[in-house]
Amino acid sequence: MSNAASTPVIVAVDLGSNSFHLTLAQLQHNNLQIIGRLKEKVRLAAGLDEQHYLTEEAQQRALACLQQFNERLADTPAINVRAVGTYTLRKAKNAQQFLLKAQQVLGYPIEVISGREEARLIFEGVAHFQLTNKKQLIIDIGGGSTEFAIGQAFEPVLLDSLQMGCVSFTQKYFPDNQLSKRNFKRAIIAARLELISIQDLYLREGWEATIGTSGTIESILDICRVNNFNQSEVTLDCLQNLKQQLIDMKDFEHIDLQGLPENRREILPAGLAILIAIFRTLKIDKMATSPAALREGLLYELVGLEKTADIKERAIKGLIARYHIDMDQARRVNQTAQQLWQQVAKYWELDDDYFKQMLSWSARCHEVGLSINFSKQQKHGEYIIKNTDLSGFSIPQQRLLALLVRSFRRKFPMHRYEAIDDEALRIKMIRLARLLRLAVIFNHRRRDLQWPKATISIDKDHVQIQFPEGYLDEHGLLEADLEQEQAYLALVNLPFDYS
């Protein structure tokens, strides 16, 4: 059997705001070999109504595309597939309801990733595709957002996502399909206003090479090449000339440019306006392009799954350092939580690395809210984790981590868990929270103590802890904490006993 035949196929699915992409690859001789691509123009961003709900029509377009992807995947093992949603699914208020249907049609889980995580994965894809020691600025203009990354080799130092994309800007600034100077001016000014938030930071950081990635930028370079045979990079002169050509064509129906794919015609003007604004604001002279982007980043991380765990681990360590968490207490609570997990993992169906890691991360970060104040630290901790960019984490994973931290003390926020649509996942997250709460209670004295061999008995969700005879009589504070915990859990019908 050949090496290619024995190497598993890995798959990246990108539910973008303009197009959905399916990319299949194999690792051959330590190189990622693309063996197939499918692309469907879904224009999901165009399906967001004024209240930011995905219309039924847009959902049906998306589901029809995912049905095609499902047929192509043909029972590929789930561990070899990663599907992500980007800007529009971050924005849509009914994204969760749509994702339940989408996952059923695709047959695989779909993660919604943050803008900065999207930028990181784009950087990862480009960095692996074209190895260089130069410090690079990488830009990807999508349908609903534009991602920016500065980094060297495989290490990004700045990551950002701005709310400007070729589909959303087409709707907002070219609603009449007119290629007027006024429409272009409005779009360019709007993009420059978005760019102000990163302008000074990026110019201070500096870079040696600028790389554009995405169909929009590649299409613009193709048009520039046709107009100037030796044009190998995008320049501001080319962009300005192209803008004037489009203005002379007056409206979308008369756009006729050699090198422009038909499916790019409607979004080219908005994409061009955004790119002109980027060139002017960040003082870019020229921009090369790369065929690699988000999908390649996903594939490279699928090839080395341990690296994804490393990225998450670095993010957690960064959070701990940034908020000056007591590392000794974090270690103690984590050790206790892991000991508790080992006793109940199999019976409670938590014997999966994902749940073990979530418990560990929440144990180590549970005091992050102390940086604001003590009395409501669990609420502050939830807010911090939900609103901090944690590399490697999808938005749902980050929210679940934040919810665990929200749950580590005081009243158990059962109503917050009811928002988890997946019943099995909801039950498991509640169980993880109970383990975290116990680990915190057992370490209230904030000292390295040798705990007695306490036995945990589980009967469905009824937890009972048995201490050695006479132990609680000698440890009145622990008994008081357990009594309070019993009362808190009784309020939400979670039975807990100790003796």
Automatic annotation (TrEMBL):
<dbReference type="Pfam" id="PF02541">
    <property type="entry name" value="Ppx-GppA"/>
</dbReference>
<dbReference type="GO" id="GO:0006798">
    <property type="term" value="P:polyphosphate catabolic process"/>
</dbReference>
<dbReference type="InterPro" id="IPR030673">
    <property type="entry name" value="PyroPPase_GppA_Ppx"/>
</dbReference>
<feature type="domain" description="Ppx/GppA phosphatase C-terminal">
    <location>
        <begin position="311"/>
        <end position="486"/>
    </location>
</feature>
<dbReference type="InterPro" id="IPR043129">
    <property type="entry name" value="ATPase_NBD"/>
</dbReference>
<dbReference type="Pfam" id="PF21447">
    <property type="entry name" value="Ppx-GppA_III"/>
</dbReference>
<feature type="domain" description="Ppx/GppA phosphatase N-terminal">
    <location>
        <begin position="28"/>
        <end position="303"/>
    </location>
</feature>
<comment type="subunit">
    <text>Homodimer.</text>
</comment>
<keyword id="KW-1003">Cell membrane</keyword>
<comment type="similarity">
    <text>Belongs to the GppA/Ppx family.</text>
</comment>
<dbReference type="GO" id="GO:0004309">
    <property type="term" value="F:exopolyphosphatase activity"/>
</dbReference>
<keyword id="KW-0472">Membrane</keyword>
<protein>
    <recommendedName>
        <fullName>Exopolyphosphatase</fullName>
        <ecNumber>3.6.1.11</ecNumber>
    </recommendedName>
</protein>
<keyword id="KW-0378">Hydrolase</keyword>
<dbReference type="InterPro" id="IPR022371">
    <property type="entry name" value="Exopolyphosphatase"/>
</dbReference>
<dbReference type="InterPro" id="IPR048950">
    <property type="entry name" value="Ppx_GppA_C"/>
</dbReference>
<dbReference type="InterPro" id="IPR003695">
    <property type="entry name" value="Ppx_GppA_N"/>
</dbReference>
<dbReference type="InterPro" id="IPR050273">
    <property type="entry name" value="GppA/Ppx_hydrolase"/>
</dbReference>
<dbReference type="GO" id="GO:0005886">
    <property type="term" value="C:plasma membrane"/>
</dbReference>
